[in-house]
Amino acid sequence: MIIQRGRIEEHFLIYILVFGCCLVFLTPPIQSPDEDSHFKKSYLLSKFVFFPVEIDGNIGNYFPEAVINFIDKKTYMKGNVNSKQSYSDYYLDSNLPVDYSKTVFNTFSTSRVFPLVYFPQSIGMLLGRIVNCLSIGRNINRYTPANMIYWGRLFNLLFFSIVVYYAIKICPVVKIPIALLASMPMTVHLAASLSYDALLIAFSFMVFASTMHLLLAENMSNFEIKKYKYIIFFSGIVLVFVKQLYLLTTCLVFVIPTDRFRSKKRKYLEIFLFYFVVCLLYVIYNAILQKLKLIDSPYSYSSQLVKRQLFFVINNPMGFLKILVNTTIKSRDFLFVSFFGNLGWLDTNFPYSFLQIIMVSMVGFSIFDDSNNQKWNIVLISACIIVSLVFLINLSQYLFWTPFVNGGEIGSVFVSGVQGRYYIPLAPMFFAILPKIKIGERIDSFIKKSFRKFAQVLMLVMFMQNIITILLRYWV
After folding, report:
1. Which helix (H) or strand (E) element contains residue 141?
2. Which residue, among 177, 94, 175, 166, has the nearest Cα to 136 in the 3D structure?
3. Which of 60, 129, 328, 382 is least surrounded, with the fewest CB atoms within 10 Å of its CB?
4. Residue from 255, 238, 282 nearest 380 by CA
5. Helix 145-170, helix 65-73: angle, nearest 10
6. Residue 249, CA atoms < 13 Å, CB-side half-sphere
7. Beta bridge mates, 342
8. Which of 34, 53, 63, 61 is nearest to 145 (CA)?
């Protein structure tokens, strides 16, 4: 039986491996957020090409013309909910030999992203290439772009599943809400694609889980303490290279007790060294890009546009706060939908009531969380992190996206480009600071069993609804 006894993380792992693997192949290629750019970067890394090149002022890379043509061919479904994937295309995309002899130069949005954040996807593509050579000889033309995408998606999903499984397992608080967050249609859709958001979400969950474990676990050995510190350190490196702002989630380390560091002085020394090393690595990578002349000149049009927008914010701080609040109010429905489930190129949605059930369930599980370990320092620091990141996410979109989509307009009254999925990494902290309700022990035991069973059913329903929605959108 699919519904059976077991820990919540075990159910999550089984469900995501079964249903997630189905989504890997059911979702047509290039039908996830920005998957065209993620595919290009993953492909390059699988070919051991780590840096972009500059040609006539444009920054990008050379690709086989067949790869670019394949991506362009798949754009007809973008935003057109009535367009479908035919079985003939599905079959031929994976089996028809491709000519890789001609190359073309192409620019793409992720060209300067740190290449190792695409490690799972590129390893999958590289392994697929090896399997292709071993199974059908050295005819690399049979290793089509569609097959590359499937291999890359599969390994991205596997990596995400393992990291999140371990995060749920070690987290002493809000286990069920985190499992539900990781099982949401939006999260699973990203995990079963080539998006680096899968790593962002997985390691933000890992930072939260490791920090809470160091804070609340009892009788930890020195080896265990060091292990979780190194996990946080590695997670911080991943976060700063995927999306720099989310390094702020690691500020939870300040709630870790002093006895995990031997002394107060050593605690702050280790925290300082953590941020110093992580930021130094990021600075070194950007220095390499600067040395290779892969960073926009401060006198370029894009740099000047960002500066002018920044000056507007600095000179009108209260005006920008009003813009932020108005944007959030006007976009509240889109933010809600794109947090829980807005698939494809933001064109594939779920019934609104279905998403509301997910939201109410998560809040309910958080309020009745049986850990009973809510501490004031967790609430204070988590709240500060959430408020700061919400502000900075909106600010970054206002500076680096809004003026470009508005034809160079400075001081727009609306922040463009903010999506609900950007807030998924913050959700564990939000659920942790919600007020908790303690009930009688006998009733509490009954509720625990009921909640665990309901959580298993809800997770299964979310995965199945995800499959049904993809089938209806792209195939039926």
Report:
1. none
2. 94
3. 328
4. 255
5. 70
6. 36
7. 349
8. 63
Q: What is the 3-state secondary structure (H, E, C) of 81-111?
A: CCCCCCHHHHHHHHHCCCCCCCEEEEECCCC
Contact 97, 137 (CB under 8 A): no
267 Cβ contact list (under 8 Å, min separation 6)? 256, 258, 260, 261
Please report, to the nearest 10 degrees, the dihedral formed by the alpha carbons of residues 242, 244, 248, 252 taken in order. Answer: 30
The tokens describing 289, both together, are: 């890009």
Q: Closest Cα partner for 74 from 110, 27, 22?
A: 27
The pLDDT tens digits for 81-129 are 889 999 999 999 998 999 999 999 999 999 999 998 999 999 999 999 9
**CA 87 vs CA 28, 36, 74, 331, 344: distances in Å:** 11, 21, 14, 37, 19
Using one digit for the tens of pLDDT, what is the confidence trace for 315-360? 999 999 999 999 999 999 999 999 999 999 989 999 999 999 999 9
Q: Is the dihedral of CA 220, 224, 230, 233 positive or negative?
A: negative
The Cα–Cα gap between 348 and 206 comes to 29
- DSSP summary character for residue 408: T
CA 251/CA 230 separation, integer angstroms? 15
Q: Which tokens in the block code for residue 461? A: 């329903």
How far is 375 from 382, CA to CA, in rounded Å?
Answer: 11
Query: Tokens 């970054």 — which residue?
Result: 396
